[in-house]
Design goal:
heterotrimer; A alpha/beta (513); B alpha+beta (89); C alpha/beta (244); B: alpha+beta; Ribosomal Protein S5, domain 2; four-stranded mixed beta sheet; 40% helix; C: alpha/beta; TIM Barrel; 10 helices; globular; disordered C terminus
Chain lengths: 513, 89, 244
């Protein structure tokens, strides 16, 4: 059937099951019950230590059809997923569902496992452009991949939609009894937030570490009462791939122009005031927005309550400058953020559930005033796509996009009006990630479009010189530059199901032909 | 206009296009477009059309045109085709 | 079209990326440069690209100026012929001299009649970049009624008289003062030279302040990132509300 935002979705999807249709961003927020959790007693004197991955796979009794979960705090430097899956593949085990919070190009071996039927399902909240994403787009995975958000994944685990058999922690530091921290060791990555629901709800949990320390592994992020086994390996990750290096504010004049307009808009609409809270991405333009906001905060002597999200050194500087009182951190993007999380009690970790789960008594996204978001495409209904390129190839996933858009008071999408020759504004986006109902403003270098739902914002800016236009006008400007694109042709096979944060299906991705 | 020799215009830089033209003895206008597949699928026909229009406007009947595109807009493609043809007559 | 010329963003006429982005930074005018940064072998390409760009892109929010090669070079005449067809607001003349301005004025008069444009539709902006022109500036600006601004190019002057340029700009104090004062008396815009280091915002601010204090009405920019800084300094008090 056609869902409320006009996407054609079947009632049943092979390899996924019965579809609960998307009914609106806030339509599905009723009380519910979390699933019960299987747990195991470890007697005094028993050891959790295993010498090898193989030994732990024996003890776990990993078999066909299981769901194995992983997290992506080591980003493109992660060795753990590949290490475990190589050992699983060698055993001739088939039909594994890989539930990873994120997949990066380093996880390319998955492509071969997909072809061989060792891996038949993948669930992610984040995926970078690369071999695995492309293989999914081409239909190499037997069942459709399930794309969730950072808040949607904890919801799916806690509701029982996604049952996890074994969760593998990439543990930068651990002790022999399963206490884990993310702030010490060669692979120090800071908070381990996204994985907290897995650790609580998985049948069995394994910590894989290359930095075994004397008991207890203080300051502990994951405590021993959640961890069944500990494995010591030589290396869990390449630190160069873990931290993205120093992230710099863009020098691109167009990106800076967008950032400046965004900050001016935030100020003109009264959001940059004492106690305000703010989240932005780690990309060059998003960081430039932070820099412009910082200028205005300093000028006006504003102290914000908190900054949230993936954290860069730049946000840490704002904390240390006294511009924000606190940080809620879901992922440290560089070593400065890791050190700040480790040393500064004002810099707090938040689990994926605390961050964005819609089915709890209030995730942190509900406390966000302003959220700065990116977009691959946006349509005239303000629906945003961050999952597929205009050619239909998967090149991203929601991450916290739809959670923060839904929760924040002001969700601003920033993008240049065209990306190369490709127009960003469409009549209908290729794939809906974030519904337009939750997107308030679209800022480009050639003008700012306000969602007509936000009459309050339109009222507030009417006496400013800000270049306000309609989204239709932006589409015209963009098509005057690029021309009107011809519609893309897709195959019939559904290669990915896009689950909204509440567990309904908002869209599907069809095979690229 | 008669194309008498091979010539190039433009550059392989972002938003630019490198156009190479050469004589095509009485075999009409042939266009070879190299660009990202996502651009080819959505704008390939349009690019082909604007090039043919420019070639016709200049009265060139036989020409081979190789277009190596880096995300150029139509005006750039037209300008580079025009410049290459001027250099080739 | 704005008649204020507080900021003029110069972009190379042979770089499509820069040409198509030039109108988004809030500059009062953009100058598509066919001279500096365009090699002799690419002059034909740049000229065609700028013509097509003016035809195709939307420049309704910004004044469009094209800086052409000197008539003394082999490119100048063709620049005037081709560029005047798309009716830029003004043509900026490099290495301007009284004689050259007169020649271009009469060429334009003829071309405007051919194209059916109104008389003197296309204005002229001489570039002062030689010591001779600096001393002869009065005659240059009297050479055509089309002239409504002068651009002072300190880099050009430096190479003309083998002068070392500094960020502080003490060496161009006399030249700046002379250009600004002559323009003020004539009632035309005086546009100051560009500040080359686009990463040095503080230096740009100081340099712009100095130009304003000497009597310039606007300043050239070489990067979109410089526009805000210059605009803020050259803005009138009444316009101070919100500079974007």
């Amino acid at each position: 059937m056609k869902n409320v935002i006009g996407r054609e979705i079947p009632d049943n999807i092979e390899g996924f099951g019965k579809v609960r249709h998307y009914e609106g961003a806030y339509a599905n927020l009723t009380d519910r019950v979390k699933v019960s959790v299987k747990t195991r007693s470890v007697k005094p004197g028993d050891s959790k230590l295993c010498e090898t991955i193989d030994e732990v796979l024996d003890k776990l009794e990993v078999k066909d059809g299981m769901t194995l979960s992983f997290h992506h705090h080591l980003r493109n430097g992660d060795y753990v997923l590949n290490m475990v899956m190589a050992a699983v593949a060698k055993r001739g085990i088939k039909d594994i569902h890989v539930a990873a919070t994120g997949i990066f190009p380093i996880h390319e071996p998955l492509v071969e496992y997909m072809k061989e039927g060792i891996v038949t399902g993948i669930s992610v909240n984040y995926i970078s452009p690369g071999p695995v994403a492309t293989a999914i787009s081409k239909g190499l995975l037997k069942n459709p991949a399930v794309m969730r958000s950072h808040g949607g994944r904890p919801r799916s685990i806690e509701s029982g939609d996604m049952h996890i058999d074994v969760a593998f922690i990439a543990a930068p530091t651990a002790d022999w009894y399963g206490n884990v921290n993310g702030v010490q060791g060669n692979a120090a990555c800071g908070t381990l937030s996204y994985f907290m629901p897995d650790i609580e709800y998985a049948d069995q949990v394994v910590a894989i570490t290359d930095n075994m320390v004397p008991y207890p592994a203080c300051p502990i992020d994951i405590t021993q009462d959640h961890v069944d086994y500990v494995v010591k390996v030589d290396c869990i990750g390449d630190s160069k791939g873990i931290t993205t290096g120093t992230m710099n504010i863009t020098k691109d004049p167009v990106g800076l122009r967008i950032a400046k307009l965004t900050a001016l808009f935030m100020d003109a609409t009264g959001y940059i005031e004492n106690e305000f809270s703010f989240q932005t991405g780690a990309g060059g333009t998003s960081l430039a927005v932070a820099a412009e906001v910082r200028k205005i905060m300093k000028e006006k002597n504003v102290v914000g309550s908190f900054a949230a999200g993936g954290v860069t050194g730049y946000i840490v500087d704002m904390l240390n400058d006294g511009l924000f009182r606190n940080i809620w951190d879901v992922q440290c993007f560089d070593l400065k953020a890791v050190a700040s999380y480790r040393d500064n009690p004002k810099h707090m970790s938040m689990s994926g559930s605390l961050y964005g789960n819609p089915h709890v008594p209030g995730p942190i996204v509900n406390n966000l005033d302003v959220m700065i978001l990116g977009a691959t495409e946006i349509d005239t209904d303000f629906n945003v796509n961050v999952i597929t390129g205009s050619d239909g190839i998967i090149m991203g996933a929601s991450g916290g996009h739809e959670d923060t858009a839904a929760g924040s008071k002001l969700a601003i999408v920033v993008s240049s009006l065209t990306k190369g020759r490709l127009p960003v504004v469409k009549d209908a986006v290729t794939t809906v990630t974030t519904p337009g109902e939750t997107v308030d403003v679209f800022v480009t270098e050639r003008g700012i479009a306000i969602n007509p739902r936000r009459v309050d914002l339109i009222e507030k800016i009417k006496d400013t010189d800000l270049p306000i236009v309609t989204i239709e006008e932006l589409k015209e400007m963009s098509e005057r530059l690029t021309g009107t694109p011809e519609p893309m042709q897709f195959g019939e096979k559904i290669v990915a199901v896009v689950e909204y944060r509440d567990g309904t299906v908002i869209d599907v991705v069809k095979q690229v032909i | 206009m008669e194309i008498t020799k091979a010539a190039q215009a433009g550059a392989l830089e972002a938003r630019d296009v490198l156009v190479t033209v050469e004589p095509n003895n009485n075999r009409g206008v042939q266009i070879e477009l190299k660009t990202k597949s996502v651009i080819k699928k959505q704008f390939g026909k349009q690019i082909d059309r604007v090039i043919r229009e420019k070639v016709a406007e200049l009265g060139v009947e036989n020409i081979n045109i190789k277009v190596e595109d880096k995300g150029a807009l139509d005006y750039t493609i037209i300008a580079r085709v025009y410049a290459a043809i001027e250099r080739a007559v | 079209m704005k008649n204020k010329r507080r900021t003029m963003l110069f972009v190379s006429g042979n770089r499509p990326k820069l040409v198509q982005e030039s109108s988004v930074f809030g500059a009062d005018a953009v100058v598509f440069d066919l001279t500096n940064g365009v090699e002799d072998s690419e002059k034909d390409c740049a000229r065609i690209l700028v013509k097509e760009a003016i035809d195709f892109l939307d420049f309704s929010n910004v004044e469009v100026i094209v800086k052409i090669n000197s008539l003394d070079s082999e490119f100048g005449v063709k620049d005037v012929e081709i560029i005047s067809k798309v009716k830029p607001s003004a043509i900026m003349v490099s290495k301007a001299s009284e004689d050259q301005i007169k020649k271009i004025d009469s060429m334009l008069a003829k071309l405007e009649r051919q194209e059916g444009f109104e008389e003197k539709a296309i204005k002229l902006i001489p570039t002062i970049e030689t010591a001779y022109a600096l001393e002869d500036i009065q005659n240059i600006i009297s050479a055509s009624e089309r002239i409504n601004a002068v651009f002072f190019d300190a880099e050009g002057l430096a190479s003309d008289i083998d002068m070392e340029r500094t960020k502080g700009g003490e060496e161009i104090l006399y030249a700046r003062s002379r250009v600004a004062m002559v323009c003020r008396v004539a009632g035309i815009n005086a546009i100051d030279t560009y500040f080359v280091d686009a990463n040095d915002y503080e230096g740009l601010e100081k340099d712009s302040q100095k130009a304003k204090s000497l009597g310039f009405t606007g300043k050239a920019a070489v990067d979109g990132r410089q526009i805000d800084t210059i605009q803020t300094i050259f803005v009138n008090r009444q316009e101070m509300r919100l500079v974007i």
